[in-house]
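Kindly inspect this today.
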Amino acid sequence: MAELLVHRVRFFDYLPAGLRCLSYNSCSGRLAAARLSGAVEIFSFNNNFFQEKVIPGDDRKSIEAMCWVGWNRLFTVGLTGEIMEIDLQRLCPKYSLDAFGGPVWCMSCNPEETHLAIGCEDGSVKLFEIIPEKLQYARNLDRQKGRVLSLAWHKAGSLIATGSLNVICVFDVKSGEMDVDRRISSQRNRECVVWSVLFLSDSIVSADSTGKVQLWDWQTGTLLNTHHVTKCDALSLAVNPAEDSIAVGTSEGTVIQFQLLETKSGGGDVQWVRTKTFKYHTHDVRGLVHTKSALVSGGLDAQLVLRPLMDKVETKSYEAALRKVIFPHRSLVCCSREAKLLLFQFPSQLELWSLDHSPLTGGGERELWLSFEPPVDCLSQGSDHIHCCCLSPCGEWISYATASRVCVYRVQYQDGSVTFMCFNRLCLLFECVSFSSHLSVWGIVHAGCLSPAGCQESISLLAVSADGEWVAAASHGGEINIYNLMQLMQHCIVPVYNQPPTAMAIHPQTNNLLTVHTDHQIFEFSLREKRFTDWSRQLQQQGLHPQWVERDTPVTHITFNPDVPTQFMLHDMYMFCIIDQTLRLPTAKCHLYNQAALRGLSANARRSQAHAFKICKKFQPLLHVEMLSEDSLVVIERPLMDINTHLPAPVKQKKFAT
């Protein structure tokens, strides 16, 4: 393969928002992560920790706590004082209910999943009954002084422990009365803020602003043990289902594990012992989840870290991989090959850039779209964040979608200036990704709705053929439906695979559909013949290279070589790979990453040892890669150091020899 000219782009100033809280659903194996922007991300443990869904944020609403109920009901509370249920099909708020207690700081569900308890600014703990499709107010518990910052249910469902300023309280749920009121001593006249509490079977665990983790007898309020874990704040707590391991998150970015161990071999006496310390964050660890075999932590540095506990992992698998999620598992960049334009998606704005393709000037960029002040406004009206966007191949049309609407603009270039016109008459396929299970095609005279029978899952991916004849729609359940746009009817269904796709595209010349799934399997499906191609069957028969399937980051984009039909490119955050369908597939015995070794061989030896996968890891982290022509491509990077410079200053720590 000839060398490629790379246009290296590093001016996409995307800043992921910090993580505020986490909630894990053990029934479905899903993790919900709320960011400071108000966005909620859903990750699936069953699908290689893939980011299945993203609920766009809202500038007016912050999220302080989340709670799963049952298989697929998710509730959030925040400083607006409302309880909100999220519609996980339409990916938007389903309804909201005012708690009438001021800002809500915490929330928890009882073990029977019949009631929600919330802690409010006015010092009240309110109970809401969970009924189908809504919530119903039940009662208030005895009001205490000061805001309720944390709460937890006893596993029997009859008691609630709360933490606030300088005090831990225990309430009887049936009577609503306070059984235990335990004051916490402060240090140096500092107020002690109880940031988090756990209610174990035989004790209460608290984490506070003095950096202590304390264990209390919940019946008498007696202090059983104190662990000084940090000189700063201990912010979050999590316990595993067996209640023999506790994790603590601090404002220094450390996660500390305590385990319940025997003091003497065979003696029967046990106590909590500090066993491990993990340092994967630089700022506050606000969210923490402890599963059977892993710790999941999220902090203000915007990193979501999955740390497997190796003493719980028996075999080498996806569960044994340390993962750090910073960027979305979807592309935030659109590229126009014809016009050499890049469209960058931010939560509240879009940026359109033009690539300077003159080699005599040394290369450069020119931002065409610097602001969105009225009347040229392509921002989401109001406070809704942008969910997805697209740029036409010719570069003349831009579309974006929020939770409430889809906007389309026509871009006109005249004498170096750019103007925008809101379109109203053009046949266009709207991609309302993840908002419904329907595709809408609007025209000048007619509108059509394409909906597969029996499909309940929302659409996660959409791919349209270059000739405008075909469209492929993939749902979150992994079902891929093919539609004929000329006839406005369903053409066929791709055989369902047990893992959902992370990226898909239709070849511009052959109209074959390429899909890559969460377990990194690659499929090629012929739309006209309604079957997998011979190359795809050969790939599945031989199997992919072990090093390929052991990767822990999903493929987010597929692009094709416009001049060589047998070549296509796909990429994740750490590499891009050009696959040539005319070359042999790599076997398990050969080296997958063999580019450096091939350079030192003769031409004949290079041809004999070359295989179909050409992998490059030079550019990291990758947000987007697009082939512009046979010998050039554009690479969009977002260096982590640039993101770190925009973070607030971390807690100052004393270091040796400084």
